[in-house]
Automatic annotation (TrEMBL):
Keywords: Methyltransferase, Transferase. This is L-histidine N(Alpha)-methyltransferase. It is an enzyme of class 2 (transferase). The lineage of its organism: Bacteria, Pseudomonadati, Pseudomonadota, Alphaproteobacteria, Maricaulales. It comes from Alkalicaulis satelles. Residues 20-321 form the Histidine-specific methyltransferase SAM-dependent domain. The keyword Translocase does not apply. InterPro entries: EgtD, EgtD_Methyltrsf_superfamily, MeTrfase_dom, MeTrfase_EgtD-like, SAM-dependent_MTases_sf. Its EC number is 2.1.1.44. GO terms for biological process: methylation. The gene is egtD.
Amino acid sequence: AASAPELAFFKDLRPPAGDFRADVLDGLSKPQKAIAPKYFYDAQGSRIFDAITRAPEYYITRTELALLDQTGPELRALAGPGAVVLEPGAGSSVKVRKLIDALDNPAAYVGMDISGEHVKAACADIASDHQDMVIGAVCHDFTRPIDLDALPLPPGRRIVFFPGSTIGNFELIDAKALLQTFRDWLRPGDALLIGVDLRKDAAILEAAYDDAGGATAAFNYNLVARINAELDGTIDPEGLAYKAFWNPYRSRVEMYLQALRDQSFTVAGRSFQLRAEETIHTENSHKFTPDIFRDLARSAGLAPKHVFLAPAEAFSIHWLER
Ligand code: AVI
């Protein structure tokens, strides 16, 4: 693996640590206790997420990768030469390699992620394989504002790449706002290439979000470990069970940590109680139909130009333009 000096730039816009504390205390004070899923992704959580993507039940990653392989020539034609690829929530950047390899002389790639070390290493790896491109990395929470003009981006058609169906982790109103944010990153004619998971059988969905190997459960327990370590918490992970279920009315998989018994704990000096069976909501993963997603995109000011569908409509990748 190459090291960071090969990056054209690294910008650390790390969100203040106080955000985590305030958000956790606020979330645990609600009638339905909840913690925002972005806090899953510390360095260890990002590693566990990579393990989830390799779990046999978690069809999303391999389905999207296969779809990207198949759509390469069409993506190359849609994008044209010299594209500047921006990837919010880049993580380990496996998918973008397929996009970069498909494109016609892409000019630049910028990976952005809330996990700074993770994104820096992943982008440095890409830089060592693509010395002809401008490769940068940014530590950034993409739900917060960013001034793209402050990044040394070369000219060229911008493609914001947002794979993985991460859009599904947002409440619909927030998903719309996020699409509007990405739209603001684009100039007329630029594009958003976004992976969107589709509705399917409940049993497939529930298995994908509660794999037998326990990676998804470990992902949730890591959040507890993170709260205990960083916010001086006393939550006993053994008092909590991980649960995932498909909610057909809201078209989403919902994930929770559920109390196995009455318990109390402290976080950052504040006390909290959990009754037996009470839950902490950790995540939603919304599933769409192609039409419902296109409507959402239009409502955010993006024009659907093309959709690529995996076999059996297991997954979709949408090309949207400003
Ligand atoms: C990142 N995101 C799209 C994942 C998903 O499928 O909703 C997060 C995840 N949570 C548990 N498993 C995967």
